[in-house]
Amino acid sequence: MQTVQNHTGAESAGLNAAVNVDEIMQKVAEHKGCGTSGGSGKASCGSGAGANDLPPEIWEKVKNHPCYSEEAHHHYARMHVAVAPACNIQCNYCNRKYDCANESRPGVVSEKLTPEQAAKKVLAVASTIPQMTVLGIAGPGDPLANPEKTFKTFELVAKHAPDIKLCVSTNGLALPDHVERLSQYNIDHVTITINMIDPEVGAKIYPWIYYKKKRYTGVEAAKILSDRQLQGLEMLTERGILSKINSVMIPGINDEHLVEVNKAVKSRGAFLHNIMPLISAPEHGTVFGLTGQRGPTAQELKALQDKCEGEMNMMRHCRQCRADAVGLLGEDRSAEFTTDKIMAMEVNYDLDARKAYQEAVEKERQAVVAAKQEELQTLAGAHSDIKMLIAVATKGGGKVNEHFGHASEFQIYELSTAGAKFVGHRRVDLYCQGGYGEEDALGTVIRAINDCHAVFVAKIGGCPKSDLKAAGIDPVDQYAGQFIEQSAIAYFKEYLDKVASGEIEHVAKGDAVIRQGALIAA
Amino acid sequence: MAYKIVEENCTGCCACEPECPNQAISETSNGLFVIDPAKCTECIGHYDEPQCVAVCPIDLTCIIDENYPRYEAA
């Protein structure tokens, strides 16, 4: 493996495109070779890419970014500010009219903010949640269709909170017009939603775009959008800005095609690919919701992610959060920071206190990695083809530290002799609560983790315990408070021993349901 | 003559405001948008299609206001 050279050169010589693309592609290629299976002492590639398998300056950029580093998402928080209400395209999975306080999905937000309100909110949140390291602008429309509001917000935040990383998520239509400005504002993470590279596929996803003072429809619209997205991605790569690609997996429309998308974005220097399940509950009123377009099952999603993983890093920890989300991924504390509340807050932005807190987080994080590495040694030399999934109830910090009944999501790990690999998460809370008794809630949980052999929890009551067992899911509370991966590897080792001795028989599990929208009674 | 914005449909997304060549669109106190019929030219002479209609995410939100005669370019 070659060492990385002259990164600063790559960033400063932004005009010499040909040279820079090669240089950056070189860097991307360097970590691409790492195994996806983890293995002896090496952090696994994919979204779990760690310090050992990324070029140091890229690691430096992503290590505290919960959306770019799976490892970081256990420890660091992000926030979105909803300063960008306008959009320049229409997607069939989005309905701009719909909003609901109990709902969590992209493009939806309860109140829009001015750049000044947004900056105040960022400072208020950063002072309350010291592990909040990233500010993203993701909508509820398209940030680059609202360039003045977006850049004004970044300018204000950079001035008052220079330690916060800035990033932006866009559909890409206006991206080529703003890449230069993005690089001037020191934004080193950009997410582009790319659902297709074939306009025929695109025409089924995008009814229209608004471009250069004109509304385009059909294949023509999709062609313009695709060209602009890929051009924008190339321009970001030339400037050394890290790009993550989001793709919505729409079964029957672009599911197979996303393998081609994956190759196209990888060859243009994208750093991470995030394939997300379509959210299409009928009550959202989206075109796909109304036409009955289904989202993928857990197995379908994982199979596609696995298929693309050989090509590039895959993100599997995306929570598809709202344009005003606040907190660790998987939690949303936005209700604590409404405009009324933040305007009344005394904000004391203490950079040193934040730094001290983050140093403590860093220690905890290193302890997680060390514990995992140590436990991995115990699997050395073990041979087995068995792969199994487990679900984990966690509040963060990389530990098994949530009560079964309190979990609003479970993190999913795949266990094999290569170790424990994070492969996703399952929501189990109800977006719109009401009318469903606890019995239904338990059924929901079981359906959501039905592909798992075990569920790790800090604590669990007797009733759910026996129901889980009946469903073939082993409730495990012996690792309460301990590190997830270390515990998972220890459990797997024990499991293999039991299979080897004939005490238990390994049976494959079925598929699971990805929760979305309000619960639809079966 | 003029276009108008159907209040029940407007989401307040503000996409139309900067696109109007006549600065005829403004935000109301409740965060939605209105078109000043005295300023609206239906984009005649500016663009092939009315810009508020072209950019609005909700169908049938920016519509012809029947209370005014059609605009005629001078």
Automatic annotation (TrEMBL), chain A:
It holds the Pfam family Nitro_FeMo-Co. One of its GO terms (molecular function) is metal ion binding. Residues 73-322 form the Radical SAM core domain. Keywords: 4Fe-4S, Iron, Iron-sulfur, Lyase, Metal-binding, Nitrogen fixation, S-adenosyl-L-methionine. It comes from the Bacteria. Pathway: Cofactor biosynthesis; Fe-Mo cofactor biosynthesis. Its cofactor is [4Fe-4S] cluster. Involved in the biosynthesis of the iron-molybdenum cofactor (FeMo-co or M-cluster) found in the dinitrogenase enzyme of the nitrogenase complex in nitrogen-fixing microorganisms. NifB catalyzes the crucial step of radical SAM-dependent carbide insertion that occurs concomitant with the insertion of a 9th sulfur and the rearrangement/coupling of two [4Fe-4S] clusters into a [8Fe-9S-C] cluster, the precursor to the M-cluster. Belongs to the radical SAM superfamily. NifB family. This is FeMo cofactor biosynthesis protein NifB. It comes from Methylococcus capsulatus.
From TrEMBL, chain B:
Residues 1-30, 31-66 form the 4Fe-4S ferredoxin-type domain. InterPro entries: 4Fe4S_Fe-S-bd. One of its GO terms (molecular function) is metal ion binding. Pfam families: Fer4. PROSITE patterns: 4FE4S_FER_2 (PS51379). Keywords: 4Fe-4S, Electron transport, Iron, Iron-sulfur, Metal-binding, Transport. Its cofactor is [4Fe-4S] cluster. The keyword Transport applies. The keyword Isomerase does not apply. Gene3D superfamilies: 3.30.70.20. This is Ferredoxin-like protein in nif region. It comes from Methylococcus capsulatus. The lineage of its organism: Bacteria, Pseudomonadati, Pseudomonadota, Gammaproteobacteria, Methylococcales.
